[in-house]
Every structure is written in structure tokens, then in C-alpha cells.
Specification:
The chain is built from six helices and five strands; from the N terminus they run E-H-E-H-E-H-E-H-E-H-H. The protein is an alpha/beta fold. The strands form two sheets. The chain has a three-stranded parallel beta sheet with strand order 1-2-3, with helices on both faces. A two-stranded parallel sheet has the order 4-5. Strand 2, helix 2 and strand 3 form a beta-alpha-beta unit. The longest helix is centred in the middle third of the chain and has 18 residues.
């Protein structure tokens, strides 16, 4: 199959920043698996199934990308899939602090390598949390998430609203 990488996340919801990192990883690796983390402790707005579905729709044109889900440790998932590389996007120094600690722990536990990709400047301020907050207060996030994601956000946050 060639060189594969994981591009994991919660994706609650997927943003154009996430998609930028996935596209860029797909250009560097023969196959990219994008596993959606099932983490009830984060209390996601969307179910795992909804997040997987949105990612599949958003990434459908990228031939070498597979969308999946997992729970538990990323290193265990990586071992099951026989993938030794993780790709993570970095927006700012604060991301680096957290991601470096996770990368070092993953490497110590299993030898998995983490490749950090600097987020493209036009998406560097984006986060799923910020997107949800802006939509909750009636702000416009058009162009920051795929159109269908915006529609699903509005449906989830304002059920019954026309």
C-alpha cells in the first residue's frame, strides 16, 4: 500500500482548516486515514457517526483518504492499522505545547512518529469550538466550513428553525 499516515481528531465539526491539513497530508502520503475520536469526555455536539459522515462528505474527492473512527489510545489504533506516522496541524504555539507532549508520549509508548504541519495562514484562527460559538450567537461562518456542515450546525443548534 505504500507509506500511510493517520490524521486524527475530534472534528466537532470539521472545518476548512481540518480539510486543508487532510489535503496536504494526502499529497505527501500514499494513504491517509482520518480517524474520528470517540471521546465522551469532550461532550461533542455531533455524534461520532455524524462526524464521520460529515468528514466522508467533505473529503469524498480525495482518493487516498479513508475516514474511520476509534476510541481509546491512538497508539493502539495505529498498531491495529499498522500505521507508524501521525500528522497533526499546528495553529499556534499553544497547539505545539499540547501536541508535542502527546507526540512524545505516543513515541515513548509505541515508536509512532508525529509530523507537525503548520496551518495555512487563512485558517490559523479556526477551531471547531470557535465555529460552534459563533453559530450559537448568530454569526456567519460561511467559507470557514463546508456549506453542508453549516446547515447541520444550524439544524443541531436551532432545531425546528426555518
Amino acid at each position: 500500500m505504500g507509506l500511510s499516515a493517520l490524521c486524527p481528531g475530534t472534528f466537532d465539526p470539521v472545518t476548512n482548516g481540518h480539510l486543508d491539513i487532510i489535503h496536504r497530508a494526502a499529497r505527501c502520503f500514499d494513504a491517509v486515514v482520518v480517524p474520528v475520536l470517540e471521546n465522551p469526555a469532550k461532550a461533542p455536539l455531533f455524534t461520532t457517526e455524524e462526524r464521520v459522515s460529515m468528514l466522508k462528505e467533505a473529503a469524498e474527492e480525495i482518493e487516498n483518504v479513508e475516514i474511520d473512527s476509534f476510541s481509546g489510545l491512538l497508539v493502539d489504533y495505529a498498531a491495529r492499522r499498522d500505521i507508524r506516522i501521525v500528522v497533526k496541524g499546528l495553529r499556534a504555539v499553544t497547539d505545539f505545547d499540547v501536541e508535542l507532549q502527546m507526540a512524545q508520549m505516543n513515541h515513548a509508548m509505541s515508536g509512532v512518529e508525529t509530523f507537525f504541519v503548520a496551518t495555512s495562514p487563512q485558517w490559523s484562527y479556526l477551531s471547531s469550538s470557535l465555529i460552534k460559538e459563533v453559530v450559537r450567537f448568530g454569526g456567519d461562518v460561511s467559507g470557514l466550513v463546508p456549506r453542508f456542515v453549516l446547515e447541520r450546525l444550524e439544524d443541531k443548534l436551532f432545531p425546528g428553525k426555518e
